[in-house]
Amino acid sequence: MNKNATNKAIYIATTEPDSGKSVISLGLMQLLLGKAAKVGYFRPIIDDLKTGEIDNHINTVTSYFNLDLNFEDAYAFTRSEVIRLKNEDKDDKIISKIIDKYKAVEERFDFVLIEGSSFVGEGAIIEFDINVLIAKNLGVPAIIIANGHHKTTEDVVSNLRMAYDSFKDKGVEILSVIANKVDKTKSSIMVSELEKNLPSNVIVNAIPLNPILANPSIKEIVEELNAEVLFGESHINNQAGNYSVGAMQLRNYLTHLKDNALVITPGDRADIILGALQAHVSENYPSISGIVLTGGLKPEDSIIKLIEGLSDVVPIISAKRGTFSVTNCIGTIKSQIYAENTQKILTSIKDFEKYVKSDALVERLITFETSGITPRMFQYNLLKSARSNKKHIVLPEGLDERILRATKQLIDVDAVEITLLGDKKQIEAKLVMLDIPLDLNRINIINPIESEHFESYANTLYELRKHKNVNLAMAKDLMEDVSYFGTMMVHKGDADGMVSGAVHTTQHTVLPALQFIKTRPETSIVSSIFFMCLEDRVSVYGDCAINPNPNSEQLAEIAISSAATSTAFGIDPKVAMLSYSSGSSGVGEDVERVRKATDIIKSKRPDLKVEGPIQYDAAVDIKVGKTKLPDSEVAGQANVFIFPDLNTGNNTYKAVQRETKALAIGPIIQGLNKPVNDLSRGCTTDDIFNTVIVTVIQAQGL
Q: In sequence order, what are the residues at sequence separation of 6 or more whose Cβ sits closer than 8 angstroms to the Cβ of residue 305?
């Protein structure tokens, strides 16, 4: 698992409907393909589709740029699926699947363009918050787009500033903001005002409204009117420019034609139809884009025959609605960009290149590094690492319901090999009673007293502990205990790690490991940490389970071990040595113990970022930290918290866990030669699942 990594993606988010993000997606994709060999595309949420349909955004981008990406791989959810899960209070399931799908795309490409949702239909009111949440959990920076059409400069600037603050408050970096569809005469003023109201490192841009992109195609008009195409289907992607109704005499109507005009006329007006077609091919009149026949009326056979004989025919479509209704309907169409409409695609790319500060944006993308990690991404990375090199973990408490349910989940994700200790018939009966469909062919079940290794394990224990007056009979008695048997499996290499404590005490779980697995040569003390998965970050708390009153040397050792564990799990450690005072202000035995421990750490590990003594608020709040310790590189940014004693640590982690609904993974025991981890007797199935995954990763590092 890596520390801070160079960014591999950008998230395109909008503040409202009809912001024109397709222009940005197309332009940015063109830009990125000039900088990276393989660029992918991903939409977390797409609009609902009819059977057999595919999302237009995905189809347009993947088709035009010839991306090697299947439709099913390019998105996670439809809009209705997200709304249903939100109503069922299953936000975690939404984010977890989006991460899984995105990561699968990320692994295949050098860079990924992520396009947010579109703010249409049911659920639009919550979409902004969902997009912020997705960008945060994917750990990628964003570009924010606002619709400037028919809006004042003040409104657009205010809109983008509020959106910027919302993303920043959740820890999402904003690389650029774009005011799209603005009045061309006001674009420079828009840029100037945005620069005044946003930080200097945010790249601001304004793209003027382009009529070519705003006007619908004949294809869109056909779909909106449910019209029939009579002629010119090969030109159905023509852009409809100005449209006008042919109700007057032809000689008068011709004077109103404009370039790429759409002609709307009743179907029985043969004079307007033929006159418009003749004007289209005449050098003396503008070309037209198409003709809409209204009222469900179609030309007479003689007129149709005449049209069929023409060499160049624009699309002629027939709608059942009346002229007034058709005209109003066309005026409300929100035009989109389709894969077949190369004119709009090329226009979009051209506008992006002209109005967006591409060089500055590329520089930000190249140099941007992710910092920190969200809980969901942390859990995703844990599971991915576990799967990369599966290990064998023994679970001594094989009859516990939570253990059995966690085993089912672990086997389903194919992340670990599991051995349960216990009587096989009893375990089978418990699974039936609890209706847990666990396939016993995929796990190992060992009853210690029936094991072929029982005698060997007992003899090994005797040899290891005879200097402590343990005889062979005593060793056999101890080996009947599942904690001793499981720990011996790890010691002998028959398992890579052990997780216990759902039923047994911490002492019962840890004591055998201390007796014969023992500590690493470079470690003088066994300690523990919790990974505290808070709303928007993952912190490390230590020691909250093992050492009641560590002295300065032990505190230093706990901090160094905790920093090493953090690094192994992808967290760049900034260590806070907690106390009731910050810096040099406090006096007393307790604060001096923390101060001395900090000095020891700096002496032994000058490469570590550490601050102490420091209060919790100064460690996590940047404003408080800068006030109390203005020169510290840890204050306000700490992610590894070392508590002065077990009383403080244990109560703090439980208080944070309960009050914030944080997920606490642990305790994770550090300092042993091989991984043995303890569970709380109040643990949940998820706690067991996560602790086993962590144990697998610990085993991989040995």
A: none
Q: Which residues pair with 75 in a beta bridge?
A: 43
Q: Would 451 be classed as within a structural domain?
A: yes
Task: Name which of 16, 695, 123 is nearest 396 in CA terms.
Answer: 695
> Using an 8 Å Cβ cutoff, are 676 and 487 in contact?
yes
- The span from the CA of 555 to the CA of 549, in Å, is 9
Same domain flag for 464 and 448: yes
Local structure of residue 84 (DSSP, 8 states): H
Could you give the CA distance from residue 426 to residue 419 in angstroms, rounded to a whole number?
A: 15
Q: Which helix (H) or strand (E) is 625 found in, with range? A: helix 622-628
Indicate if 258 and 230 belong to the same structural domain.
yes
**Percent of the chain having pLDDT more than 90?**
37
CB 577 within 8 A of CB 614: yes
Interval 486-501 mean pLDDT:
93
Structural domain count, the chain: 4
Nearest C-alpha neighbor of 690 from the set 483, 372, 507, 416: 416
- 481 near 396, Cβ under 8 Å? no
Lowest mean pLDDT among 72-76, 657-661, 696-700: 657-661
What token pair was written down for 595?
């101060």
Dig out the tokens for 582 from the structure: 């910050």
In the 3-class helix/strand/coil scheme, how is 514-558 assigned residue by residue?
A: HHHHCECCCCCCCEEEEEEECCCCEEEEECCCCCCCCCHHHHHHH
Backbone angles phi, psi at 43, to 5 degrees: -120, 110
Asked if 485 and 388 sit in the same domain, the reply is yes
In a domain, 511, yes or no: yes
CA 665 to chain centre: 20
CATH code of the domain in which 230 resides:
3.40.1390.20
Q: 521 preceded by cis ω (within 30°)?
A: no
| DSSP-H helix ranges across 248-316 | 250-253, 270-281, 301-308
Angle between helices 375-388 and 685-700 in degrees, nearest 10: 50
The residue behind tokens 């576990």 is 386
**418 lies in a domain?**
yes
Is the torsion defined by CA of 334, 339, 343, 347 positive or negative? positive
Rounded Cα distance between 385 and 381, Å, is: 6
Report whether pLDDT(194) > 60: yes
Do 358 and 432 lie in one domain? The reply is: no
Starting at the edge strand found earlier in the chain, the sheet holding 527-533 runs: 609-614, 574-578, 640-642, 538-542, 527-533, 663-670
Q: Round to whole Å and give the CA distance between 78 and 61.
A: 18
- The pTM of the full predicted model, rounded to 2 decimals, is 0.68
User: Average pLDDT, stretch 47-73?
Assistant: 88
689 and 638 belong to one structural domain: no
3-state secondary structure of 261: strand
Q: Whole-angstrom distance between the N-terminal and C-terminal Cα of the chain?
A: 15
Element (H, E) at 271: helix 270-281
User: 223: which residues sit within 8 A by CB, 6+ positions away?
Assistant: none
Question: Which CATH number goes with the domain that contains 92?
Answer: 3.40.50.300
Domain with 377 in it: 373-518+672-702
Instruction: Tell me how far the alpha carbon of residue 616 is from its chain's centroid.
Output: 29
Helix (H, G, I), strand (E, B) or coil at 287: coil
Are 439 and 414 a contacting pair, CB within 8 Å? no
Do 480 and 536 lie in one domain? The reply is no
d(CA 489, CA 504): 18
> Model confidence over 591-617: pLDDT tens digits?
899 999 999 999 999 999 999 899 899
Instruction: Determine contact, residues 346/658, Cβ cutoff 8 Å.
Output: no
Pairing of strands 538-542, 527-533: antiparallel
Same domain for 528 and 502, yes or no, is: no
Give the Å distances, CA to CA, from 390 to 441, 443, 485, 699: 17, 13, 22, 9
